[in-house]
Structure formats: C-alpha cells, structure tokens
Amino acid sequence: xxxxxxxxxxxxxxxxxxxxxxxxxxxxxxxxxxxxxxxxxxxxxxxxxxxxxxxxxxxxxxxxxxxxxxxxxxxxxxxxxxxxxxxxxxxxxxxxxxxxxxxxxxxxxxxxxxxxxxxxxxxxxxxxxxxxxxxxxxxxxxxxxxxxxxxxxxxxxxxxxxxxxxxxxxxxxxxxxxxxxxxxxxxxxxxxxxxxxxxxxxxxxxxxxxxxxxxxxxxxxxxxxxxxxxxxxxxxxxxxxxxxxxxxxxxxxxxxxxxxxxxxxxxxxxxxxxxxxxxxxxxxxxxxxxxxxxxxxxxxxxxxxxxxxxxxxxxxxxxxxxxxx
Length: 325
Hints:
The protein contains 13 helices and nine strands. By secondary structure, the chain is of the alpha+beta class. It has one domain (4-46, 66-324). Strands 3, 4, 5, 6, 7, 8 and 9 form a seven-stranded mixed sheet that branches. A two-stranded parallel ribbon has the order 1-2. It is globular. 42% of the residues are buried.
C-alpha cells in the first residue's frame, strides 16, 4: 500500500490541469444527463430491434508464462509499476518475451510492441482495469492500450510514460462515433471537447519516441487518414489537442476512468452504441484497405492526398469543435 508521498511521486494524484479537465468533464456529463432525462430513459438501454455489441474475438493466443522469465522493472521512475500498469504481471512478462524482450534492441522491441498493440488489440469503451485484463480481453480504451505498450516496454527495461491531452477530433470520427448516440453528442458539444486522450512514449537512445497505439489501421482508413507508425504523433493527424492541456506523466492518475464508469452505470446503451460504431468503422476501413491494394498502398495514397489538404477549424455552435479537411 503506497502512502500519499509515494502516490504523488508516481503521479497517481492528478496534476492541476488534468484535475480541472476531469472535474469539468464530470460536471458536464452530469449536467447533460440531468437535463436530458427523457433521452436518458429512451437511450440508456438497447432495445430489441437495435443491433447489439459483440466483442470481437481476440486475434492472438496468450503465450505461456514460465518461471524465471526476466522482468526489467526497477524502482527507477518510468520503469516501476504504476496504477493499472504492472509490467511484471505474468501475462505481460510472457507477451514481452514472446515479442523479443532482451533479444532485440530497445528500438526494435518498442516498435514490435507498438505494432502488436496497434494491430492486435481493438478499441472498446469500457471501465478501467489492470493491464493483464486488457491482454486477456484483447480490447480496451486508448488508455488500456497505451498501458499495455508501456507495461511491455518497462518489462523489457525500457523507460515508458503517458502523454495526455484534451482532444478534438476530425470530422469523420465526430460523425461516426459522437454522432452514433445523442447523449454522447450532447456531452461532447457541452464540453467543447470529447474526452482525455493519450499516447505512449518510450525513452530510446536518449530521446522520447511517441507511440500512438489507439486506432487500428482499419479505423484510420475509415477516417481517411494515414496509418500512423511508431514515432509518428497523432496530433495534427487524428486528434487536435486543446492548447495548454498536453502533459506527460508516469502513471494514469486517479479518476481517469470516472466518465466511462458513470456512462456505463447510467447509460450503458450509449456506451454500447459507441462500441458498435467502432466495429462498423473497422469493417469499413478493412474494405477501403482491400480496395486500395493493401495497407502500404492505402497509406501511400492517404499521405499523398493529405499533403494537398489544409485543416480548417469549425467553431459552429451546434457541433462543438470539430476539424475539417
């Protein structure tokens, strides 16, 4: 059991900026729910005629854990266990060794871990839980997936941390995800941003290398954007950070999953509709990639197309803040 000083040192206690956003998001969601009780009653559950969310089958086998497998965790900052992220959990250790921990260079291993998490784990809006649960389930929020990447890196003796920001999104994602449920749309429009977002960063050869593992290639194709690679930032491509909200931290802070927990308890149907929309994006993106001739061909086309477009900011009152191409 950590004492208060240790919790603060490991950054379990939210920073001032993050705490302000956390409180604001919670109050905003509460206001939307309280002022839309009619919609809440209709939308809080999925009705018989509506599509139901079916969690996708985990596309990988869990490698076996063997006694004596090395874990590179120390008490040094960015190498130690933190909230929801235990690098020495058997599932993490076994997976890290399966991916080449202590056999590959730091860069090669971190890149392999990035590609595994990005392409094998799928986005699902759900309450926060430990990293080993995410590996067993095969799905999770962006922060679940980032935690898997960070845990794998720390297990391999590579320093890793979180980068967080309050984000806006490109128009196609706003339409497909936020627009999939009226309550979620009102929450977004009330706050002016959707939720806290994040990326992982690994410390390699004296510098922090970004790893945005949240969207699969299929989801990025559905959004018409390039397939981000290890070392490429999502900001300016998939997300746009509100000025002054970007921070780096060793741990997920207390309270990060509060919004998802509240939404699941009060309006589980809304959460389910978002997850259904995510799977629709995956299916759409898969076809787009196939039609383009594969991931490399699609990515080259998307990068060329994106290079000729400018980003414009839409501040219209009825849509919150969204970004158009």
